[in-house]
Design brief:
Helix content: under 10%
Structural class: mainly beta
Number of helices: 1
CATH class of the largest domain: Mainly Beta
CATH superfamily of the largest domain: RNA polymerase II/Efflux pump adaptor protein, barrel-sandwich hybrid domain
Radius of gyration: 18 Å
Order of helices and strands: HEEEEEEEEEEEE
CATH architecture of the largest domain: Beta Barrel
Distance between the termini: 43 Å
Oligomer: single chain
CATH topology of the largest domain: OB fold (Dihydrolipoamide Acetyltransferase, E2P)
Largest sheet: 4 strands, antiparallel
């Protein structure tokens, strides 16, 4: 597995609420897990790559942020988009009033665009993900008060 792909997986894990991720691509497999401030790489014995099993990477993630309000969480893994198309206005902005059932964003997964609708009435107090960033299942993406 390409070192760039592994670094991308590490970055995705850093930005998520997950503690571990495992990816298999053909005969290659890599498992990355968080533990005591480090990400440990464990690779399948059949894989011959430039990364050893003992190599680890430091994380600087601040997990202490407290979010006040109703949290809209990603229902699937994918790429977060605030707009229906690159030249359109965002579905919502911080400060907008939203109604239950209103489309808040799109998460693209496997070339499918999935509209994420509000489960709450209220005002958008924060958008926790940048446009075009990957999101993990259960990750808070928008907070509504």
């Amino acid at each position: 597995m390409d070192i760039r792909k592994i670094k991308t997986l590490i970055e995705m894990l850093e930005e998520s609420n997950l503690n571990e991720i495992e990816v298999t691509q053909g005969d290659e497999s890599v498992r990355i897990s968080k533990g005591r401030g480090l990400v440990d790489l464990v690779e399948n014995d059949q894989v011959n790559t430039s990364i050893s099993n003992q190599e680890s990477f430091s994380l600087n993630k601040d997990d202490t942020k407290n979010l006040v309000g109703d949290q809209v969480k990603a229902p699937l893994v994918g790429t977060f988009y605030r707009k229906p198309s690159p030249d359109s206005d965002p579905f919502v902005k911080v400060g907008d009033d939203v109604k239950k059932g209103q489309v808040l964003c799109i998460i693209e997964a496997m070339k499918m665009m999935n509209e994420i609708k509000s489960e709450f009435d209220g005002k958008v107090s924060s958008i926790e993900v940048e446009d075009g960033q990957p999101v993990e299942f259960g990750q808070t993406i928008i907070v509504i008060q």
